[in-house]
Design brief:
CATH superfamily: MFS general substrate transporter like domains
Order of helices and strands: HHHHHHHHHHHHHHHHHH
CATH class: Mainly Alpha
Strand content: under 5%
Shape: globular
Distance between the termini: 23 Å
Largest sheet: none
CATH topology: Growth Hormone, Chain: A
CATH architecture: Up-down Bundle
Length: 427
């Protein structure tokens, strides 16, 4: 048995862990947005039909969900490190298929591999970050992972703004960047050891030591009185708000080209122009997330974020509302979506439930988004304002669930484990 005090479990600088592990969020966003843009390009270069685009988009989302469900459980059972090494290899292979094949069957297989790898990586990578940090920097570093998520969107849009007019080559470049980054991350992650907190919990459980950290391991524990409320609230919050966000990520280009009537390049350039605003908002979130002000910012961000979906319903889809919608979503989302969700997911569950709890939350949200993606192109064809009216309602309900659950605080399990288990108390 390996001691938690041996060098094998000594974490490198938590900010380094945050960047290398947090790139899972970059890949998640880049895979979704790259797929959304590249499939529109492939529609006109290799002859994909609207139904095939819907199937591939839904497959990506469904496989991210399945990957999160399985990867989260495996991460709690076998360790964070072993899972997040395998996931990078899957993404590399899947991306290669998406770049070099033209048949729908091979595109389907490649999409499956990228989705499964991305989904499995998310909960274990986030748990790795949370367990490498302390209360002074956990929110900030998890917030950094959210900036990387935004970076995945912006990086892909930047590529699209240059390569969007290159035909199939442009789509290949966008999809290829996901595989190249995963390839680099595979080697960078070799230097990150197993989470010390997970290794200690595993050792305590093997030795029969009863601790909060080692005692919670099964789904039924998530549904116990202590964790059921935050678990169900986070699931509802992410599921409902992500339906709208995922639709924008996967079909934003489709909407801009086929409804608003602008080019792929112009739509990408608009998104790129929003980057400084999103970056400033994300940095500000990192500044306030570890303070008592974060719920005030959540409330303000929630209002702005919801407005981003409501405005085009009221005023119609045109270039002006498209720009305002992206601006509101960039600013509001920084304080009331992925960033704060990731912080709450780390804090709400103990060590041997943390990864699988996140896996369940991510999986349910992505399953729902995948189901919607199957029919989104047809719904947009029937009238995007009706679709976005429904999405606006879901966003408002999801944000209210989060507000009423977390406004008075939920027990921070890192603090609970430190107080009840002397082994994890800070030195």
């Amino acid at each position: 048995m390996t001691s938690a005090h041996e060098p094998a479990h000594r974490m490198p600088n938590p900010w380094y862990v945050g960047v290398v592990s947090g790139m899972a969020s970059y890949i998640d966003a880049a895979a979704i947005v790259s797929s959304g843009i590249a499939l529109v390009i492939y529609q006109h270069t290799i002859g994909l039909g609207a139904d095939q685009i819907g199937i591939l988009s839904a497959t990506l989302t469904f496989c991210i969900a399945i990957g999160a469900l399985v990867g989260g459980r495996l991460g709690d059972r076998f360790g964070r490190r072993s899972v997040f090494m395998v996931t990078m290899a899957m993404i590399v292979v899947g991306s290669a298929l998406l770049v070099f094949t033209t048949s729908f069957a091979m595109l389907f297989v490649g999409t499956m591999l990228v989705g499964l790898g991305t989904g499995a990586d998310l909960p274990v990578s986030l748990a790795t970050i949370g367990e490498a940090c302390d209360d002074r920097n956990r929110g900030k570093i998890i917030g950094l992972s959210n900036l990387l998520w935004v970076g995945g969107i912006i990086g892909t849009i930047a590529i699209a703004s240059v390569a969007g007019g290159l035909g199939r080559l442009g789509g290949q470049i966008m999809l290829g960047q996901v595989g190249v980054i995963a390839f680099v991350l595979f080697f960078l992650r070799i230097g990150i050891p197993e989470s010390a907190s997970w290794a200690q919990a595993r050792d305590e459980r093997r030795a029969g030591v009863q601790t909060i950290r080692a005692d919670k391991v099964a789904f039924r524990d998530l549904m116990g009185a202590q964790y059921r409320r935050p678990f169900l609230a986070l699931m509802g919050f992410y599921c409902l708000v992500n339906l709208a966000a995922n639709t924008g990520g996967q079909f934003g280009t489709y909407l801009a080209v086929n409804v608003v009537g602008i080019s792929v390049e112009l739509n990408s350039q608009i998104g790129l122009a929003m980057f400084p605003v999103g970056l400033i908002a994300g940095l500000w979130f990192m500044k306030i997330v570890d303070t008592q002000r974060r719920m005030n910012y959540f409330a303000l961000g929630a209002v702005v974020y919801a407005l981003g979906f409501i405005l085009p319903v009221v005023f119609g889809f045109n270039l002006a509302t498209l720009i305002v919608m992206q601006l509101c979503q960039g600013v509001g989302g920084a304080f009331a979506f992925e960033g704060i969700l990731k912080v709450w997911m780390q804090e709400s569950f103990p060590t041997l439930l943390r990864s699988q709890a996140q896996g369940y939350i991510i999986a349910i949200a992505r399953f729902a988004a995948g189901a919607l993606a199957l029919v989104t192109p047809r719904l947009m064809g029937a009238g995007p304002q009706v679709l976005y009216a429904g999405l606006s309602l879901l966003v408002v309900v999801g944000l209210l669930i989060a507000w009423f659950t977390f406004r008075r605080g939920v027990a921070n399990q890192f603090d609970v484990e430190s107080e009840l288990d002397p082994a994890v108390a800070p030195a």
